[in-house]
């Protein structure tokens, strides 16, 4: 490919001079406006900050299609896993039992969390790259009537697979069970609304598709589930019920909030709305993914997943079997060209991942493809010479 074939980058997505693009599933490249929102300090008890918190909670409920008070949004300090842990402890009674649908690291982490919490569970483990199928879930729920909750990762970020949420939600509902969704890496970019998907609990965080900075997660949870959860948590600081009660009563976070992160997120939500909300963001990420996948295939790379399971969030590519290809060298070559990619997380094959989310657009992806082509040349990797 020649330089002339690549469009010029748009000013929208250019990070500060020398700052790399983060093509990772969070933390990711944020906008200048989002970063600038952090240039002042906020009192955690102050009315102005409480208003920011209230608007953030309201905006998130709106994004989930909540129109009445049947659901609440409870933000919680920490990374996304803290919110998953708090949500599992809140939603699942101590004598409950979960079915965890696994096809990667985040499903596995949920089972580990349930072990810590002392909640019983069974699993459906599909390995690295296959989705759990609705009929498999149906059969497991028939065979295990004592299961009370089903846990599904919407996009399993360790491979990038987009799991069939709606079909599985329908099965769970038909069995009268409760659904907990880890929508960490999809919420804000793939539509999930309460009228469309029957769920009790949805968990996401600040630094994924809404393009904030790390610092907190949030749980969109059926109010009746929260109300039944007093005293259920295993941990003081991860008690979602207490966080909710305190926030409802005072407008404040129960313990020190990540003030700058919340204010940056508020700014990021404004930009999300200006981009056309969930649909606008989905359109941009999908273009990023399409340009990335077709460009990488032209360069000779193969995707882990079949096209029908590719998410617009992150894509896993196999490392080429060329003797001169080493991931760390490739990573460093790309880093000198201002792109940070992500190692793979597969149990079997050597792989790496490239994110499509954050403040990047298709022009940046074209730049990335040129950087990848240059890196391969620098490494002496000519994939056209590799036998299939
Ligand atoms: C990012 C992510 C999480 C949370 O990971 P943290 O490192 O705790 O933020 C959980 N599930 C999925 C699917 C994710 O992508």
Describe the structure.
Residues 128-306 form the Aminotransferase class V domain. It catalyses: (2-aminoethyl)phosphonate + pyruvate = phosphonoacetaldehyde + L-alanine. By secondary structure, this protein is α/β, with parallel strands linked by helices. It folds into 2 domains: 16-23 and 277-379, Aspartate Aminotransferase, domain 1, CATH 3.90.1150.10; 36-273, Type I PLP-dependent aspartate aminotransferase-like (Major domain) (Aspartate Aminotransferase, domain 2, 3-Layer(aba) Sandwich). It has helices at residues 32-36, 47-63, 80-91, 105-117, 134-143, 165-174, 223-227, 240-250, 259-274, 277-299, 327-336, 362-379, and strands at 21-22, 71-77, 97-102, 120-125, 149-153, 155-156, 161-162, 178-182, 201-205, 216-222, 314-318, 339-340, 342-343, 351-355. It starts with 20 loop residues before the first strand and ends in a 9-residue tail after the last helix. The model is unreliable at 1-13 (pLDDT under 50). The structure holds pyridoxal-5'-phosphate (PLP). Pyridoxal-5'-phosphate binds at residues 25-26, 79-81, 84, 106, 153, 157, 182, 184-185, 205.
């Amino acid at each position: 490919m020649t330089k002339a074939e690549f469009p010029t980058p748009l000013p929208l997505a250019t990070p500060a001079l020398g700052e790399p693009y983060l093509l990772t599933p969070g933390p990711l490249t944020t906008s200048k406006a989002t970063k600038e929102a952090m240039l002042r300090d906020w009192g955690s008890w102050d009315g102005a900050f409480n208003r920011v918190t209230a608007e953030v909670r309201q905006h998130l409920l709106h994004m989930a299609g909540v129109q009445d008070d049947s659901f609440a949004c409870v933000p919680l300090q920490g990374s996304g896993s803290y919110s998953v842990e708090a949500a599992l402890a809140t939603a699942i009674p101590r004598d409950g039992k979960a079915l965890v649908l696994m096809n990667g690291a985040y499903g596995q982490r949920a089972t580990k969390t349930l072990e810590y919490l002392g909640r019983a569970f069974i699993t459906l483990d599909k390995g690295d790259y296959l989705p759990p199928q609705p009929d498999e879930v149906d059969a497991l729920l028939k065979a295990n009537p004592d299961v009370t909750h089903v846990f599904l990762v919407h996009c399993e970020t360790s491979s990038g697979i987009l799991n069939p949420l709606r079909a599985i939600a329908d099965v769970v509902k038909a069995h009268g069970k409760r659904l907990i969704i880890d929508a960490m890496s999809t919420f804000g970019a793939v539509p999930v609304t309460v009228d469309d998907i029957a769920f009790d609990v949805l968990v996401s965080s600040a630094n994924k598709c809404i393009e904030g900075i790390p610092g907190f997660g949030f749980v969109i949870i059926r109010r009746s589930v929260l109300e039944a959860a007093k005293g259920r948590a295993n941990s003081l600081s991860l008690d979602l019920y207490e966080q909710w009660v305190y926030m409802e009563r005072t407008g404040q976070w129960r313990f020190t909030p990540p003030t700058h992160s919340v204010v940056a997120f508020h700014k990021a939500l404004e930009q999300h709305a200006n981009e056309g909300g969930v649909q606008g963001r989905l359109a941009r990420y999908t273009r990023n993914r399409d340009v990335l996948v077709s460009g990488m295939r032209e360069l000779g790379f193969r995707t882990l997943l079949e096209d029908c399971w590719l998410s617009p969030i992150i894509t896993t590519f196999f490392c080429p079997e060329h003797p001169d290809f080493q991931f760390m060298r490739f990573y460093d070559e790309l880093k000198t060209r201002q792109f940070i990619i992500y190692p793979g997380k597969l149990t079997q094959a050597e792989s790496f991942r490239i994110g499509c989310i954050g403040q990047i657009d298709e022009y940046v992806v074209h730049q990335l493809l040129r950087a990848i082509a240059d890196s391969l040349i620098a490494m002496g990797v000519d994939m056209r010479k590799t036998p299939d």
